[in-house]
Amino acid sequence: MGRLGVKTDYEELRNAQILENKARLASLGLQKTVAELRSIRSKPQSEKRKYNKVDYFSTPLRRSSRLKGNSSELNSCGTAPLAKRKLGLFDEGDDEDDIEKRPANAPLLRVKYGLMLRLTPEALARRCTSKDRGTLYDPYLGICCHFCRQKKLCGEEDCKRCGDSDMDQPCLGKTDCSICHSSQGVLCRGCLKVRYGEEMEDVRANKEWICPHCTEEKGINPYWICNSSLCLKKRKMAPTGIAIFKAREMGYKSVAHLLMDQLQGAVKG
């Protein structure tokens, strides 16, 4: 090993190569440093786009023939377009006191222009393929379930409302609370079974059936609450999601029975 302070052959060769490179750059006129190059470099200026105001009044405006009511086409379910229908309880000129309150599973649907509400043969063939929550979605004839919020026609074969579009008949696949008759008491067959452990046939046979909201408000069972995501959020509770598998593994009949036991345990604890 060499002594400290004594240059090796490698260092002498390296210094000689550095001097040679500097002389070559000087001969080419490239002896400016990086700092000098950065100082003389100018930033490119972005070009501003010229704003052109569009004159929308120079051409005729487009107007939808559907909104004007000129289209007579039916949707995929065979019902009329929204512009030709009036949804709600009362028609123009009707008095609210002259019309009796209808059940939540049989809302009144008035149709303008004398249109007939009917389902296509293809829709009728698909309507009863699923009995729990229904298969056919219909934004006009369908009744929204309070839990799953699916506005589908029921899959009950004997339902004249969903099958024959008879607005004077109740939907056999949706429940109706005997006290409030509101949308909060409307449940489809699937949600009624999974979330509350009840059968649709038993509810239809019981003319005094009460929804979970009225059951709690009347003090019949304060722990039998509605476990829909909307109602649980109002209680500052997290929605349960698909909790039926957990409830059945723990031996409960439905999600409502599981929540009832949890609420009772929280109060006692």
TrEMBL record:
GO terms for biological process: regulation of DNA-templated transcription. Residues 137-259 form the Zinc-finger domain. It comes from Solanum commersonii. InterPro entries: CDCA7/CDA7L, Znf-4CXXC_R1. The keyword Ubl conjugation applies. It holds the Pfam family zf-4CXXC_R1. GO terms for cellular component: cytoplasm; nucleus. It is found in: Cytoplasm; Nucleus. Keywords: Cytoplasm, Isopeptide bond, Nucleus, Phosphoprotein, Transcription, Transcription regulation, Ubl conjugation. The keyword Disulfide bond does not apply. PANTHER family: EXPRESSED PROTEIN, OS05G0300700 PROTEIN. This is Zinc-finger domain-containing protein.
